[in-house]
Amino acid sequence: MSNIRFRAVETAAHKKALHVATPASHPSDYFACKVFNRQKMQQYLPDEVFKKMVSVIDNGAQLDRTIADAVASGMKQWALELGATHYTHWFQPLNEGTAEKHDAFIEFDGNGGVIEEFSGKLLIQQEPDASSFPSGGIRNTFEARGYSAWDPTSPVFIIDDTLCIPTIFISYTGESLDYKAPLLKSLHALDLAATSVCRLFDSKVTKVTCNLGWEQEYFLVDEDLYFARPDLLLTGRTLMGHDSAKNQQMDDHYFGIIPERVKAFMKDLEIHALELGIPCKTHHNEVAPNQFELAPIFEDTNLAVDHNMLLMSLMKRVAKTHGFRVLLHEKPFDGINGSGKHNNWSLSTNTGTLLHSPGKSNKENLRFVVFIVETLMAVYRHNGLLKASVMSATNARRLGGHEAPPAIISSFLGKQLSTLLDQIETTNSDDAFLVKAKRVRKIDIPEIPELLIDNTDRNRTSPFAFTGNRFEFRAVGSEANCASAMIALNTAVAEALSNFKKRVDDLVANGTQPMNAVIQIVRDDIKTCKPIRFEGNGYTQEWVKEAKQRGLDTQTSCPEIFKHYLTPQSVALFEGMGVMNRKELAARNEVKWETYTKRVQIEARVMGDLSLNHIIPVATQYQSALLSNVQKMQSIFSVEKAKQLNERNLLLIEEIAERTSLIERGVEELVAARKVANKIDSEYEKARAYNQTVVPKMDEIRKQIDKLELIVDDSSWPLPKYRELLFIK
Ligand code: ADP
Ligand code: MG
Fold first, then answer.
1. pLDDT at residue 285, as a whole number
2. Are 164 and 209 found together in one domain?
3. I need a labelling partner for 147 at 20 to 30 A (CA). Which of 106, 430, 508, 671 fits?
4. Residue 660, H or E segment
5. Distance 309 CA to ligand 2 centre (A)
6. Contact, 694 vs 656, CB < 8 A?
7. Do both 573 and 462 map to the same domain?
8. CA 158 to CA 403: how far, in whole Å?
9. Looking at the 3D structure of the chain, how many domains does it have?
10. 278-281 long-range contacts, Cβ below 8 Å, gap at least 24?
């Protein structure tokens, strides 16, 4: 069986060594050719309309409905030229994927024929009767109306024959039902707060932009093997499977040579992505076998989030044409690394970057310190919430394991920056920071060494690390929508910055010089947020203990972690910054708990089926073969001799019997636990029951199955093993 499986891999590889789109040109020739970007707008829109659109995009001006028809008309012309026949509002509902409902451009022309039609009204707003999208009860089915409304800051694009219009998705009563609406609000809040802090230092700053550069990790498995694993197919991860003798111990995959088939896939994927304006920059092997990474150049956060959603769906499509399946699950295989999505986060102003040092002057250096410290304040105050923002049933399998970021949010700054903050904190002489009216006489911010720019002092275990000119939030899950983490982070930083500004203003109102006030507050905050700074190894048990003492959140249960969204502190944060209200937060949590339950429920069902229909029959068959062998031996040899020769077989028979009966009992208990949990009304309580009673049962069953995998005849084992799944040839 094994050999046949291997052969299957090879034939599939050749069969599907598919067309790699080979454009005769360079990326610069076809980059964004399927995007209605500024350049296309200029080409297809009347001058006046183009100018208004630019102002909408750059300054967040209101979209004037009177220009909508003109914009739609230009867009339509461009789309038809590229062969588009349909259009869709493309949005990001709370179930992690994207949603779209395609409509053809055609309308009756009144003379029995049809014309291609697309109006401003259709561009701006739609009502995608989307009652089946998760809404946490905000939108009961009887008032199922949800609106999708165009987000003009993200350009429309074409996939196949469809013009896709990025939209927000909100309920009839205005609550957000998606990721984009709160993301845009959080970006706005951050812009306001950060700009006002920047203006303490430089009156030329009028806008602060938040940048996101994500790194997407993923696994590839051969399609034929994927289909032979019902667990991969239905849950996205292997629910069973013993370690391969060789996995990632040799560290030979990371940055190794990319297998030919994978290279062809990556090339194809990147061509499609570049056409859609996704600036793919880097690809390489990751730590685990069959694990890879793709990273683009960073972009404005809203656009970067859209691009990541697009890329994930492109990946799935392109992989199929190469005989692969992409696994975006955070922990598809036990015993080797899982996948994350590092979110590189930074801020820049209309005049330059903010998290970059050294600056040209002491004032700029001080501003740098303020933004670092206030980001730390945000992460410190809301570390539990930030964890909640990246938590999911799937990422819970990765976070808190003995790899990747731990389930405790802390921040790593590197030696230089850490020392710098320590110096500022411990310089007690106020004299050192004396600032005279108007003219800065002396701001004793120690020299910030050049090296900080290329901070290679890396700590891979930190979930929130400063890496020279940005923070890298590494706890984000590989299949997650980046927006969830970015909403929480941006809102928390916006709050920290506005608190900071308020306190500085208060001091200034009482006669303190502005820069002195800044230094005083920043020094206070360095002290306050100290518990969030951790430079050590985040994987150790000692850190868990220490983090607890520091007052950081060390909870590992996913349903409990979600509760952080509803603490008074979090509600005050989101409401205070105008990002979400309590009702929206509560509704979204209902969705989170429900989704958690459903994912575990599906896993438990698949586990039950596989145990009873795949594993036990095969194990029992092998056991029967052993039994008949034993009996036959007894008929040939003397009792003594037969006993001696059968020693191992008898042990195996006993072991199989014990393990299969443990599995049977385990499945019964699993079903019983599910039945009990299913009766619970509260989504939180139900998720909690699944977490406490169903998850551990599955893990127990798995243990038995993985042991059986080692003893049952390989030729009859019903599932491809890790060693087959994990090494693409
Ligand atoms: P590493 O794996 O060492 O972290 P990569 O080159 O794989 O480095 O990824 C770097 C990521 O950081 C890219 O996605 C890139 O766009 C992003 N990035 C670089 N500079 C910034 C910045 N100033 N702001 C946000 N993201 C950035
Ligand atoms: Mg990185």
1. 86
2. no
3. 106
4. helix 647-678
5. 19
6. no
7. yes
8. 39
9. 3
10. 278/307, 278/310, 278/311, 279/31
Taking the CA of 476 as reference, the closest ligand is 2
Q: Are residues 664 and 638 in the same domain?
A: yes
Ligand 2 center from residue 52 Cα (angstroms)? 38
DSSP β-bridge partners for residue 211: 300, 346
Q: Which atom of ligand 1 is nearest to 212's Cα?
A: 25
Ligand 1 pocket test, candidate residues 344, 349, 368, 456, most atoms within 8 A of CB: 344
Domain end point (choices 548, 580, 612): 580
In a domain, 262, yes or no: yes
Ligand 1 atom closest to residue 469's alpha carbon, by position in its atom list: 23
642 located within any domain: yes
Mean pLDDT of 557-566: 97
Query: Ligand 1 pocket check: which of 209, 292, 297, 298 to mutate, most ligand atoms within 8 Å of Cβ?
Result: 298
Centre of ligand 1 from the C-alpha of residue 343, in Å: 8
Residues belonging to the chain: 729
Residue bearing the CA closest to ligand 1, atom 11: 213
Separation of CA 471 and ligand 2 centre (Å): 10
Around ligand 1, the residues with Cβ closer than 6 Å are: 211, 213-215, 282, 295-298, 344, 346, 469-470
Name the 3-class secondary structure at 294: strand
Residue at token pair 């990765």 = 398
Phi, psi for 239 (deg, rounded to 5): -85, -10
Does residue 519 carry a pLDDT above 70? yes
- Check whether residue 318 and residue 207 sit in a common domain: yes
Q: How far, in Å, is the centroid of ligand 1 from the Cα of 469?
A: 9
**Ligand lying nearest the CA atom of residue 300:** 1
Which numbered ligand comes closest to the C-alpha of 293? Answer: 1
DSSP calls for 154-215: S--EEETTEEEEEEEEEETTS-B-BSHHHHHHHHHHHHHHHHHHHTTT-TT---EEEEEEEE
248 with 168, same domain: the answer is no
**CA distance linking residue 675 with residue 682, whole number of Å:** 15
Residue 283 in domain: yes
Answer yes or no: do 557 and 706 share one domain: no
What is the tens place of the pLDDT at every residue in 273-313?
999 999 999 998 888 889 999 999 999 999 999 999 999 99
User: Counting atoms of ligand 1 from 1, which one is nearest the CA of 298?
Assistant: 16
Domain that holds residue 255: 187-580
> Which atom of ligand 1 lies closest to the CA of 295?
14
DSSP 3-state of 670:
helix
Instruction: Determine the distance separating the centroid of ligand 1 and the alpha carbon of 168, expressed in angstroms.
Output: 27
Q: Which ligand is nearest to the CA of 355?
A: 1
Ligand 2 center–CA 726 separation, angstroms: 23
Quick one: which atom of ligand 1 is closest to the CA of 284?
Answer: 7
Rg, Å, the chain Cα set: 29
Q: Are 93 and 87 in contact (CB under 8 A)?
A: no
Same domain, 554 and 411: yes
pLDDT tens digits, one per residue of 36-71 = 999 999 999 999 999 999 998 888 777 877 889 999
CA distance 229 to 607: 12
Bond from prior residue into 358 cis (ω within 30 degrees of 0): yes
Q: Looking at residue 640, which CATH number applies to its domain? A: 1.20.120.1560
Considering the domain architecture, whether residues 642 and 552 belong to the same structural domain is answered as no
